[in-house]
Specification:
globular, alpha/beta, binds magnesium ion, single chain, five-stranded parallel beta sheet, binds thiamine diphosphate, about 10% strand
Length: about 350
């Protein structure tokens, strides 16, 4: 990976860039980031139950390896467009837990000043375009951002992260078609977690392997075990190299699973008995911890220490965020632009 060009940004944003580079360079940091995502998402569900989160929220427990694999294989000056299930992707890319929880809890220190909330996260210093609540909307936007890079002759790439349900949306087909015909430097990453809202994929989609859809646009595809962070990292690295060398888009289907329901307090009672348990057996955070022990990077104690450090850090973050000022109604109008006289 060539060394990234760092944007000139504020102290807080530079912090996000350093978090990102730490993850790129250190496998223990990758593990710690997966733990951070898991703990924060579990806490978000509690906070929602306590009535502290305005609006709605969608968590990504079980999908941590996809986010961390993407972040580890791309540069901070690349562009990532993801969905409302974006807390994990934001943390993986480097957004600080203060900026993320601040946003989710409507505080001024949030990455959008507390006026966007859980579904609208962004941090330009690490390439995170605003996360999208409209299913599939990020796909043509990522293609457009890849077109920008192509026109400017930059080697930046774009990554579009979306769910299985998004592959049935018009924008998916339009985005893939344009990316293919113009050989745009974009990676399409489909997180196939088997559900779109409350419907299992076999009730909405006539094929099981969504990578097949790329063939209709002559886009090369790879299917990857979304519970294996190193496997995700490798496929993204290959796709990123193709994109930077002008070889066009790649489609990646990551087979994964969301442990929580679709949003908020959905208990996901519609899932077949035993399905969640069988996925829990291949928990991405535990699998990666076991791998790092097996290859001698960490020992049991090191793994435990990371969990403990992340738990303490999260509680300290939460304390700071809850003590910080809320966004006010007036804040809603501070970032509005008007044209004309
Ligand atoms: C265009 C559009 N149609 C419908 C919805 C309502 N909706 C929100 S999430 C969702 C399911 C999307 O599933 P998927 O793409 O698999 O993503 P996941 O939630 O599993 O990450 C739907 C239908 C929406 N937000 N936008
Ligand atoms: Mg889905």
């Amino acid at each position: 990976m060539s060394s990234p060009v760092l944007p000139e940004e504020t102290e807080v944003q530079l912090d996000a860039v350093s978090r990102r580079l730490a993850l790129t360079n250190d496998v223990a940091v990758r593990f710690a980031r997966m733990v951070e995502i898991r703990l924060l998402e579990d806490r978000v569900i509690d906070l929602f139950g306590e009535g502290l989160i305005p609006g709605t929220t969608h968590t990504c427990q079980g999908q941590e390896a996809v986010a961390v694999g993407i972040a580890g294989a791309t540069r901070p000056d690349d562009v990532v467009v993801c969905t409302y299930r974006g807390h994990g992707m934001a943390l993986a890319l480097g957004v600080t837990p203060d900026a993320l929880l601040g946003e989710i809890l409507g505080r001024q220190i949030g990455c959008m000043g507390g006026i966007g909330g859980s579904m609208h996260l962004s941090d330009s210093s690490v390439g995170l375009l605003p996360t999208m609540a409209i299913v599939g909307a990020g796909i043509p936007i990522a293609a457009g951002s890849a077109l920008t890079a192509q026109v400017l002759g930059s080697d930046r790439i774009s990554v579009s992260v979306f769910g299985d349900g998004s592959t049935n949306i018009g924008g998916f087909h339009e985005g893939l078609n344009l990316a293919a015909i113009w050989r745009l430097p974009v990676i399409f990453v489909c997180e196939n977690n088997l559900y779109g809202e409350y419907s299992r994929i076999d009730r909405t989609t006539p094929i099981e392997d969504l990578a097949l859809r790329a063939a209709g646009y002559a886009i090369p595809s790879e299917t990857v075990d979304g519970q294996d962070v190193d496997a995700v990292l490798s496929v993204i690295e290959r796709a990123a190299a193709r994109a930077r060398e002008g070889e066009g888009p790649t489609f990646i289907e990551a087979k994964t699973y969301r442990y929580a329901g679709h949003s908020r307090s959905d208990k996901a009672a519609y899932r077949p008995a035993g399905e969640l348990d069988s996925w829990l057996e291949r928990d991405p955070v535990r699998l990666y911890g076991e791998k790092l022990i097996a290859n001698g990077t960490l020992d049991e104690e090191g793994i435990e220490r990371i969990w403990a450090e992340q738990r303490d850090a999260l509680e300290a973050t939460l304390e700071r965020v809850l003590a910080s000022p809320r966004a006010s109604t007036a804040d809603m109008f501070t970032r509005v632009q008007a044209s004309g006289s």
